[in-house]
Write a structure and sequence with these properties.
The structure is a homodimer. Chain A is an alpha+beta fold. Helices cover about 35% and strands about 20% of the residues of chain A. The first copy, chain A, contains ten helices and seven strands. In chain A, α6 packs across α7. The first copy, chain A, is globular, with a radius of gyration of 20 Å. The first copy, chain A, starts with about 20 loop residues before the first helix and ends in a 10-residue tail after the last helix. The relative contact order of chain A is 0.11. Chains A and B meet through α1, α2, α6 and α7 of A and α1, α2, α6 and α7 of B. Chain A binds a DNA duplex (20 and 20 nucleotides) through α3 and α4.
Amino acid sequence: MKSQIETTKPDPLENRWYNDACGTALALEFAGERWSLLIMRELMLGPRRFSDLRASLPGISANILTMRLERLRVLDILRRRQLDPPANVQVYELTPWGHEAEPIFQAMSRWALRSPLHDPTLPLTPVSAMLSLRAMLRPDHSAPPMTAGFRFGRDMFISELSGSNLHIRRGKPDVVDIEFDTDTTSLVRLVYGKQPLEALERQGLLTLKGDRAVAKVFVDCFELPAHVS
Amino acid sequence: MKSQIETTKPDPLENRWYNDACGTALALEFAGERWSLLIMRELMLGPRRFSDLRASLPGISANILTMRLERLRVLDILRRRQLDPPANVQVYELTPWGHEAEPIFQAMSRWALRSPLHDPTLPLTPVSAMLSLRAMLRPDHSAPPMTAGFRFGRDMFISELSGSNLHIRRGKPDVVDIEFDTDTTSLVRLVYGKQPLEALERQGLLTLKGDRAVAKVFVDCFELPAHVS
DNA sequence: CTGTATCCGTGTTGATACTG
DNA sequence: CAGTATCAACACGGATACAG
């Protein structure tokens, strides 16, 4: 069929699945293959290494991850970068345009979490837990600006809440108003399950530093969408 | 691996691809298979028949369409409905929750169309053309409220522009301020390519009814996002 | 005519093992 | 650690046949 000589490495760009000028179809051609969007999600809060990604995406196999990364790279959604010595490792990071995909994740989350099939006890990566906060920030909350730190083992984040904006970056939470040291599932139970802070602390699932009242104000800024039917 | 006896009809619900509490992963389990989102897109502006869908989704095969429809039905994203006599045909229509997926399409479109790989000359279905108008409505436009009708052969729509809202429904455009009789590609050239109305009319690609000045105001309410880099 | 089911060739996916 | 190679299983798309 193709008049073109077959190349050893198939060009990811000529693989057009849908022949459609529609933006949705185009997005699906870019990132509609299995795993692609989840890889992008894991990169939304900063560069990651190959093995980080593999560990965060339970079930993906190495060859598929390689293929997806290569395709996303060719499409200019992400880049591969060699870290300066002495680290000297390579990481994958989103391009500015890749970062602009975040509204897709927010729209998908807000829609899908309304299903009664959502199971909040399933595991969650630190990145998706943090991104979910941004997606589920109540537009009508009235909390004052504050900073909150999160420690999920080695993964640490600093978030700055200010009005309808929640800025998130990786980093050791040094000077923050409140700091949670926990795992992602417990954070979900606290923030979305409205499980009492004290109960989680008593079970040893969460440690809070900072003002307890401020922490409760923070938690109340977030809300899962209501289930359908 | 599975301790369960295999059923003749595999339950679409037990097919969990990603084991992840993240909303994005859940959305991808619901609608991440090939074609699913495009089927939903085609239903966003009203019920369609099996053969309508098949014709709108060039490349899908009948068995795949059947499988996707069944899965979306079980998930309560769409329903199958028997039209009253004398029509007596069955149609597929989104549930209210299915309709709530529209922000996903908007986010995907706005993101993907910024790629230089977007080819606006590819074919476009009437539904995606109309939906794109809603996605690409400039938030800062200052046009007064107006109604615009669209005829793409048998597919007819009425849109009501009012501030930042563009309501769209199927229907014969009877009492509208302006009416376009054209094909989707020409509409794209007019609205996003900013090709002059008169040029398209001269080529016989478009017929306008109503006030020409109003039509130009309408067209200027829409804008494609700028390409990256 | 509308929609569904079955068969089959092909390409994609993913688990395992392996290499620089 | 960061991938590559191999191979089996599955999903896809096309054709065809079937049912209302």
